[in-house]
Each structure stands twice: as C-alpha cells, then as structure tokens.
Specification:
Length: 204
C-alpha cells in the first residue's frame, strides 16, 4: 500500500507535512479533501475530520500535523527536522506550537471577517492582539539568528512558522513583510527551496 496524505492546497497545517515529505524524499499519494463537503472515507479515518491526515504504508493512520511530523522524523530521520537532544527538541516544539497557534488564530480571524458579525468585535480584537503579540516574538528571534533555533539548521519550527506566515499572506495581510523585515528576509530565503516554493497556497 502506498502512503497517503489527505490535505488541502491552502491549509497551512497540511503544508507542514507536504514540505517534510519532499525534504525527506518520501513517496506519497496526495489526496485533496473538499473541506466544505468532506467525503465519508476521510471522516471515517479521522473523527476530528481536519487535514492533514497521513496513512502510512502499513495502514497506520495519524492525524494532527505535529504528530505526523514527529512520526516522520523519528521513522525517517534523514534529514532531521527536530533536534535529538531533549532540551533542544522542547525548544523546537515550543516554537512549532507558537507557529501553529498563530495559524489557528489567522484561520479564526479570517472566518470571523467572512461572517462580519458586529457582536464578535471583542473576539476580533482578541485575535488581532494575539497576532500582533506573536509576530514580534518571531521577528526578535530572527534578528539574532538565521533560523529560529540558531544559525545551523532549519527545523520544524521554521517550517511551521513559514506555513502560518504564508497563510497570513493568503488570507489577511500581504504587507507584513514591510513591518517585520527579519521575518520577511527569512521567509523569502526559505522560498528558494523547491519544497517550500512549490507548496505556496494559491487563492481558489
Ligand atoms: N491541530 C491540527 C489543526 C488542523 C486544522 O485546523 N486543519 C484545518 C485546515 S488548515 C481543517 O481541516 N479545517 C476543516 C474543519 O475544521 O472542518 C493540525 O495541526 O493538524
């Protein structure tokens, strides 16, 4: 059985895994899921019914991008995207969690903007505050180091963050690059890689 990745082209969480699969040179069938009308076989695979969902060639089913990323990195460790030492791995996971939280916040704000509900203005402010609090944290780190975990290697922390920033450009704001120059330079540089460039989210 071939590996399968259930994904959506615009999904930042799916993109984390698409980049990882390319970087690790792993063959995988990509199955795009219509999130507005999820097929039964997809919902049966994962009760959460969110993309990405990964099916290994021994039929093991894994959902949640971070669980999939950790599984792939442990099972196919060349090249590595999580540090091996516990403390460094913890740092990497913390950045990844922050990037994913940013991604969730962007999704929620985009959905809220679509509904244009005046009752939600306090919630909108909360989401905007979260984005405006997180972006300077990434900017500050990247003013000091080439990648989020230092100058040597890009890691899952960088992949998760670039996916959330790509999603931010797609949904809410393309001009963030002007306000956060270090984050912007890092983002552009990473897009020189085929795995990153070829997975950029495209408006439907
Ligand atoms: N924590 C999950 C989040 C996945 C997620 O939110 N996926 C979104 C697309 S980016 C989704 O499938 N949304 C469809 C829905 O909620 O019905 C992960 O890291 O995989």
């Amino acid at each position: 059985m071939t590996r399968k990745l259930y994904y959506h082209q615009q999904s930042n969480f799916s993109r984390k895994i698409r980049i990882l699969l390319q970087e690790k040179n792993l063959e995988c069938e990509l199955i795009e899921v219509n999130l507005m009308n999820k097929p039964d076989d997809f919902v049966q695979l994962s009760p959460i019914a969110k993309v990405p969902v990964f099916v290994e060639n021994d039929s093991t089913v894994i959902w949640d991008s971070t669980l999939i990323a950790e599984y792939l990195d442990e099972t196919y460790p060349t090249p590595r995207f999580y540090p091996e030492k516990n403390q460094e791995k913890l740092e990497c996971r913390k950045w990844e969690e922050m990037a994913d939280h940013l991604g969730d916040t962007i999704i929620n704000l985009w959905i809220l903007n679509l509904t244009n509900n005046a009752v939600s203005s306090r919630y909108r402010t909360r989401l905007e505050d979260t984005i405006n609090r997180l972006l300077p944290v990434f900017e500050q780190q990247l003013s000091q180091t080439k990648y989020l975990l230092g100058d040597e290697n890009w890691t899952m922390a960088d992949i998760a963050t670039l996916c959330s920033m790509g999603y931010y450009s797609l949904r809410l704001n393309e001009d963030w690059i002007l306000a956060y120059p270090h984050l912007g330079d890092w983002f552009k540089k990473l897009h020189e890689r085929e795995s990153v460039n070829s997975t950029f989210p495209i408006p439907l």
